[in-house]
Amino acid sequence: MRDKKLNLFSTVMFGLSAIIGSGWMFGSSQAAKIAGPAAIVAWILGAILVAMIAMVYVEIGTMFPEDGAMSRFTMYTHGSLLGHIFSWANWLSLLAILPIEAVASTQYMSTWPWKWAQWTHSFMKNGQLSFNGILMATGLILVFTLINYWSVTIMAKFNNFISVFKIVVPIITMILLVSAHFDFHNMGTTVHQFMPYGTSSIFVAIGSAGIIYSYVAFQTVINLGNDIVKPAVNIRRGIIYSLLISALIYIALQIVFIGALPKSIVSGGWSQISFNSPFADLAILLNVYWLSTLIYFTAFISPIGSGIAFSASASKSLSSMPKNKHLPKVLSNTNNNYNTPRIALMVDFLVSVILILLFKNWALLSRVVAASTLISLLSGPVVAGSLRKMGPNFKRPTKIRGMKFLSPLVFDLISLAIYWSMFPTTVEVIVIIIVGLPIYFIYDFRRGFKEFKQKFYASLWLIVHLVGLSIISWIGSSHFGGINMIQYPWDFLVIMIFSTVIYYWAINSSYYSGYFDDAKQLNSTVNWDGE
Question: Could you tell me which InterPro entries the record lists for this protein (predicted)?
């Protein structure tokens, strides 16, 4: 029903709630530590990069507005094997946000300075969650799950409130910190002072300081395509507006953080910056104590908002995967008064708890997200390029100009982002893929391994690409964790050439399967007026 769907405002708020999570509390400090004042450039370049990626997905997302859409796209052009790999990676990238945000909230709580909150100090032990911390994080994930358990309407109303709160507090924080202290000299007066660790540090910051991790949450909007009013236009608007607003906030936060730092900290070297709760600690240093209290509270609330948004998106992703015929149909069951995928929600809850038990701090969990997110994003430009060849007459409510140039460029940039994440992240990506493959082969065996040679060839490019990136990362520049056999910036050129070759192999390995017929049928239901 219409009253159960998200309007444009709720769609934008949903996107903002996903994008502005725990990243704003840590990102500015981590980026400044890696790149100094040049971290500002890293946030700008990161926003441009993700906007280019988003434009590719906007075209595809408006062509196929359905629940869990990100788990379906590759199936349409390359068959079930590659589709399963990418849907598995996409689901993990969304699901892993739940334990990350729950762990982030729990870690923030463990630093609360008030006497009445001393009981929270037992949540962390030696940099990891204690037993009490695990219980707290599990309780938060249960809250994420239950809010989504009772319809998209309740989730949207709760999310709208938190989203506004998450936007207002960073703005208040910036105004008060600038009022308390802001030194333009912290930016440096020479190129070396502005960029103390060279240009390579900018790209390291993009890949490992939470910048890409923060921005790529735009995909949550696409995964709720069927729950959005006028999806043909509001998916595009929701992504553009939420990305633009969040980019302005993140860039401004980085400028304020650098300018507000006391001279005593800056003179000690950017690499020596060490804050447990960056903006709260900075407020205390500048004697704005009530602001630190507000930030501590926000540091608990903000991740909850993201957790709720990603709980909805991850459940939509999992519940859509049985359409690919390689997971139990019961996961797609929405036969309840609120039309929510409750079984998928409960499975997500259980897997999230397992992830908390395996990875007991924010840093370890973020590696899981980075690996699975980057590989899942590789599918977008390949699908977009393939569909321009396979379905030139498909309805495209948002047809991106110059897609034949944008798709290979975006594919190359995502490959570079994997490289920026530093070795051995690329190896971890391959491990994540392998974990999901046995499930596929069990179901494909039951179906008689139909068209297996064709499906295997359509997927081979991805395996070659990931192995190739792993090797290049290993022998690449020491700036990015390699053995420096290929020095910076020649390593970038090697990846660009290698990735371009792989891209054209990928789009030429697409083929017409039964899933393409599903895509044609779904696309035929898209109305140009956006209804």
Answer: AA/rel_permease1 (IPR002293), AA_Transporter_AGT (IPR052962)
